[in-house]
Amino acid sequence: MSAASRVSARTAPGGPAEASPEGAALEIDALCVRRGARDILRGVSFSVARRELVALMGLSGSGKTTLLRAVAALEPFDGGAIRVGGVELAAGVRRPPSPDPLRRQVGMVFQFHCLFEHLSALDNVCLAPCHVLHEPPSDVRARAAALLDQLGVGQRAAARPRELSGGEAQRVAIARALAMDPPLLLLDEPTASLDPARRRALGESLAELATSGRALLVTSHDDDFVRDFASEVMILADGEVVERGAPREVLDAPRHDATKALLRGLAR
Amino acid sequence: MGWLVPLRAGTVVVVAALAAARVDAQQAPPLRWAGDSEGGAPYVEADPQRPERVQGLDVEIAELIANELGRPAQFVQIAFTSLDQSAARGDFDIALDGIEDTPARRASLAVTVPYYEFREVLTVRAADAARFRTLADLRGRRVATLGGTTAYELLLGAEREHGIAAISYDDDVHPYEDLLNGRVDGVLLDNVIAERSMRRMAGLVTQPDAVAVGHYVGILASSQTQLRDRVDGILRAAMADGRLEAILRRWLVWNDDQPKLHARLAEAIVGGTGASRPSGWTMAPRYLPSLLRAAAMTLVLSCLSMALAVALGSVIAAVRVYGNRALRALFTAYVEVVRGTPVLLQLFVIYYGLASVVRLPAFVAALIGLGLNYAAYESEIYRGALEAVPRGQLEAARVLGLSEWQTLRLVRAPQAFRFALAPTTNDFVAMLKDSSLVSVLTVMELTKQTQIFATNLGSWVLPGALCAALYLAMSLPLAQVARRLEARWSAPGPS
Fold first, then answer.
1. Domains of chain B with bracketed CATH
2. Alpha-carbon distance B99 to A85, whole Å?
């Protein structure tokens, strides 16, 4: 592979996303992902603007997580385009070079948190600002502590990941992603490990993040959560977006069979 | 293959049915006699023409004795340093291999009359012949000999008296080689061995004055006094009628000392030094300082070698996980070659095999040998530990913008470290014990010192117990520290 073809991301004309705070933080155009003979995503197109919280729903295996991973450049894709802020990802690139301009644009919260096991909650949040942004440690620690406070886990700053409950770990993982101040935040099933009360609190936190100017793309199996907090929902089935719109319209009056099947499954 | 010569495992290897052991229809049980054929010329050595047979002056004396007893001779191969213990255990009837008459042997074994008188002589490089005439001239210099011999005891005495450094070898060939190439400045050994080495190597001179006089004897289990007395009779008869002289002349070791010895024996003035039996408890205080010194050597060598192994092992592991295909193949080959060959062989190659290229001091060769060997094992532990860190941890680091190197340094290695801690400690304890192998490179570590103690004492009980206690004193705290570290890193605690 030549050096030129390894370059996966370039700054698009018009400069970085910060220049247009109200513009699309994420644009996906005809995204295709193939694994072997199987098409996982078949021409998915949509965009997420700042202040939006877009929910991706679909049965397991519908391609939700693959989509998030492609946007975070954790998996290569085979066709179409992904633009995150001012950075365009290229199809067919296995591994972006580092340092990677994409990393300032997107943060990701994994379904199983993936907090660094050997570090305290606070140090998990501080790691990237200290070592990637080279900010002064005292500033970083103060900001990290404030972030944990803001997300309601300030008192757990010294705890190791294994000592945290699922909900606490989820919030520390969100704080870790926010510490890099990315315009776009991806969350994979953030409510999966939460009880209803915690789900509500998390939803409010996420809605607040959107209100403060971030774009959020969230996969979820939780239709109540989507109804209450998402600004738009997209139903993914067999690698395609089969239905999209305001959550209450889509979920209360589903038109596509896949949406109906999904809601039947969730109701059980 | 010169460096293979001293390969003397401490274990007893019994190779049966050699020499004149043609067990025919005769019903008499064979006379099982022992020696070490490895580099054992002119006493016992493998016949260059027929390597399955042995030859040497002791072979002929054994055959003479067996003949007189009316029994076929059967050779038993025993490592030289194990002959005493093996005799006491009754592994054979008699050992004949240029074995010195010492008080310790007389105390714990049945010993025959002396059949040869030798002189301990000092050999130096020809260029030094004028300035190194006696041990006293060698103050501050290294003088080599065969471990566990009277000559070694003499050197230990000279260490105290004249300030020389006594270096113990496991064989009688390498001391002279190392004298020639400058690793030591003198060799003290039997005139028989010295003369033989001078015939083989140019540039050496043996000083004419004997440092001491000693005798070769046969040794038997202490209960075998009856057989010993018969052997004594046979030896005296062979001295009287010239059969022994003929054998000694054939092997070029006859000299003017021998007729005098024979005459003294004929007058029944048997040349034993007849000291009282040394007891372990009285000997222990004398040996304790040297055992402690040897234990310190073991500890220092193990720590330094382990540091080298950990550093190198980390590099190998990182290359095998992150490197390109060519580098990975190279380091994989290194690991497989090192793991697939004995560490003893590697030590010989580094110390003796490379001597013509780079003349490493024994300690450095031991350090490098053990370090390189353990690095292969450590690298496998670290590679496994790196690969055991979940992929999600690496992806999380990548999404946050950490570079590959930062991910390794800040996320992957610290987590892998915890997986690797227990097996690494385990290897460290193994290293403490494996370091005993470097005694073949003349490094005086704990096991070697214990062996010398045991040989001189004629018993392994007290030296063995002391040695075990010292090893445990080193390894138990290590295990304790490892447990504490593991607890600290795995237990939840403040950051």
1. 2-115+217-277 (3.40.190.10), 116-214 (3.40.190.10), 281-488 (1.10.3720.10)
2. 88
- The pLDDT-based confidence of B324 (bands split at 50, 70, 90) is confident
Measure the CA–CA gap between B282 and A79, rounded to whole angstroms: 87
Model pTM score: 0.70
Tokens standing for A214? 């971030």
Answer whether B388 touches A (CB < 8 Å): no
Q: Is residue A71 within 8 Å of A186, Cβ to Cβ?
A: yes
The count of structural domains within chain A is: 1
Q: Spell out which residues of chain B touch residue A159, defining contact as CB-CB under 8 Å.
A: 492
Residue A138 contacts B where some CB pair is shorter than 8 Å: no
B13 dihedral zone (left: phi>0; alpha: psi -120 to 50; beta): beta
Segment holding B153, helix H or strand E: helix B150-162
Per the prediction, chain A carries an average pLDDT of 81
Instruction: State both tokens at B422.
Output: 């227990």
Compute CA A250 distance to the chain's CA centroid, rounded to the nearest angstrom.
Answer: 22
Structural domain boundaries, residue A57: 50-74+96-105+182-267
Contact A95, B470 (CB under 8 A): no
Q: How confident is the model at residue B377 (pLDDT cuts 50, 70, 90)?
A: very high
Q: What is the pLDDT of residue A8?
A: 35
Residues B64-88 pLDDT 10s: 999 999 999 999 888 887 888 888 8
